[in-house]
Design brief:
Length: 318
Amino acid sequence: MKVLIVGRGVVGTVYGWALSQAGIDVTHVVRQEGLAATGTLDLLDLRPGHPKHARVTYTPKTVRQIAPSDGFDLVIVATKHYQAVEAIRQYLPDAPRATFLLFTANWDGTQEIDGLLARSSLLWGYAAASGGPDDRGVLIVTVAPTVRFGMLEGSDPDKFKAVTELFQRAGFTLDIKTNIVEWLWVHHAINAGGIGIALWAGGIAEATRSLKTMRLGVWAIREALDVVAARGVDVKCYPDAKGVLNIPPWLAGLPIFCAVRFTEKGRRLLLGSHFAHSPDEMKRYYFDVLHTGENLGVAMPHLRKLRERIERYPANPE
């Protein structure tokens, strides 16, 4: 299978590297000037059978543009979630027979994408790798062993099987979501509160210095989940949400504090975080949910409390 990856951020780079290491033909399309051709990855790789700690050099095959004659079978859209529609619009004409795997978040549903692409050519996934560049440009990454996938109504089961087998070939296990769009909304809400409190505090390190701050973040997440519930989703069906909703108030924030401060994955987030290098994208998670909640009349006192500082948080450097 011939694979094109759109997006050279953490997700596109890590999964491009992992798939190419499994002998899969991977090409990255570079949509902006100035991206380094070769990158260093400092890995905490949690896939079974892979070296847990490694520092590798990844020199991807890159192109500036594609043509129908390139014959790509799979296009992995690993962009920011609000860039996914434009990426499909840009590359679909030159990959007309390809399956498109959206490896992105989603908050706005599928209507606009359905207007561009038949469901039979569309699948959705969500990465579980995390990390970002450190101050020397090394990509500090934790590679989780699982990848989330889901079919939409009208998705092609044979294409789903072919794509998921590709990731299994690269050593990943599958976490299949029955309703991938609902799950993405739940995950988006959790991110809105969690990222929101980090922006409000001035960074992940600053947020996790105070249990009081972390508790505020948990209440913000709960209110963000109320927004998803107002959309008609039974959030209690989703384990990630239940973990936040069921925790006693006096414990709220402690599990997140411990996860960041006392686990290897958490400490690596403090060394190199996507959050620190893409503040505009991170702010978008928060405002997506806040604005929807306002439109639906959801009470969000804790989530709203974060707004003023988040608006002042520095934007991406030019």
